[in-house]
Amino acid sequence: MSDFLAIKPVLVLGSAIGEVDLGQQRQIGGSAFNVARALSRLQVPVVNGMPVGNGEWGMMIEAAMNALGLPVLLRHGQKDNGHRLTQLEPSGKRTLVKVPGCETQWNKAQLAMLPMTPETLIYIHGDELTGESGEALRDWLTRLPFDQWRLIDPGPRVGLLDADFFAMLSDSDTVLTLNRSETATLCGEGEAVTAAQRFAAAHNITLICRLEAEGAWLCDGRNPPLNLAEYRVPVVDTLGAGDAHCAGLLAGISAGWPLPQAVNLANRVAACVVASPGAAGAPGWQQLQQRFPGN
Ligand SMILES: Nc1ncnc2c1ncn2[C@@H]1O[C@H](COP(=O)(O)OP(=O)(O)OP(=O)(O)O)[C@@H](O)[C@H]1O
Ligand SMILES: [Mg+2]
């Protein structure tokens, strides 16, 4: 791990939003922002594909991006960023109410101005892809060169993405990352790894199934599914665990690591976030090495 050097830039597309946790300070969140922050901590070059609005949240978001060294590339002149209200339950899960903002508005012109090379890795969360507001993004994502590497975290709204969308991603360099229930929604009921492997083979893309204590499974539809064990830690707060997992994976791929090693890194980064309050506990390299020495 000491020879880690991230090279390929990651275009982080999606939302930065306000987070209001009852009784706590206002923070900046959103899947894309969580991923971008975690990548910055791991010194991975990030291209900022997160729209920034014209209001108070937009100002806070821009300040948070500047603090991470991420200049704003996408601005919205008419709308502020959205926010969500959350409440932490004793289980470590959260309940929430969402107020949408400019992060739900996408168009072709905006996407076309994002700097990209064939090497650029792309990350996006499914919350931005669904419905009418996700149409421009779906279009853009499915029309990229087939060998442009992309990571899609379809998230809890995976059921709202239709079969055509996934059919259009067939044979491309796409990785889908899913938890257990998302795997069942997308790939069908039954044994999760078998269903995921079937889906991967049918579409000729790669799936990562995150099955809690059973670890993560890499299903590419060709080789036998590969298990990467979880790094079990006491749960403090699972907020942003999925996002941290994505960031770890992207960091490994940015450094040119093979996918299994990148998933292993994802498991470590996610474990660090689960073991700390909020989504902001993404580790740097030193912290990772201290927590998981010998990896
Ligand atoms: N108790 C735990 N100990 C260690 N790692 C954990 C634990 N819980 C979760 N993780 C890590 O976090 C990753 C992501 O968690 P999970 O799949 O539950 O996210 P999720 O359901 O997508 O949630 P969200 O998207 O809301 O963050 C898991 O794959 C695993 O690596
Ligand atoms: Mg998730």
Describe the structure.
The chain has 295 residues and is of the alpha/beta class. It has one domain: Ribokinase (UDP-N-acetylmuramoyl-L-alanine:D-glutamate ligase, 3-Layer(aba) Sandwich). The protein contains 10 helices and 12 strands. The chain has helices spanning 31-41, 56-67, 108-112, 135-142, 163-168, 180-187, 192-203, 241-254, 259-274, 285-291; strands at residues 10-13, 17-21, 26-29, 46-49, 83-88, 94-99, 121-125, 150-153, 174-179, 206-210, 216-219, 226-228. Strands 4-1-7-8-9-10-11-12 form an 8-stranded mixed beta sheet. A 4-stranded mixed beta sheet has the order 3-2-5-6. A hairpin with a 4-residue loop joins β2 and β3. The chain is globular and about 50 Å long. Residues 153, 155, 179, 242 line the site of magnesium ion.
| Ligand catalogue | adenosine-5'-triphosphate, magnesium ion
Fourth-tier CATH superfamily name: Ribokinase
What is the level-2 CATH architecture name?
3-Layer(aba) Sandwich
In whole angstroms, how far apart are the ends?
7 Å
CATH class: Alpha Beta
Widest sheet: strand order? 4-1-7-8-9-10-11-12
Spell out the helices and strands N to C. Answer: EEEHEHEEHEHEHEHHEEEHHH
| Continuous helix count | 10
CA-atom Rg in angstroms: 18 Å
GO cellular component, one term: cytosol
Protein name: Ribokinase
GO molecular function: kinase activity
InterPro entries: Carboh/pur_kinase_PfkB_CS, PfkB_dom, Ribokinase-like
Brief synopsis:
This protein has 295 residues and is of the alpha/beta class. It has helices at 31-41, 56-67, 108-112, 135-142, 163-168, 180-187, 192-203, 241-254, 259-274, 285-291, and strands at 10-13, 17-21, 26-29, 46-49, 83-88, 94-99, 121-125, 150-153, 174-179, 206-210, 216-219, 226-228. The chain has one domain (10-289): 3-Layer(aba) Sandwich (UDP-N-acetylmuramoyl-L-alanine:D-glutamate ligase), CATH 3.40.1190.20.
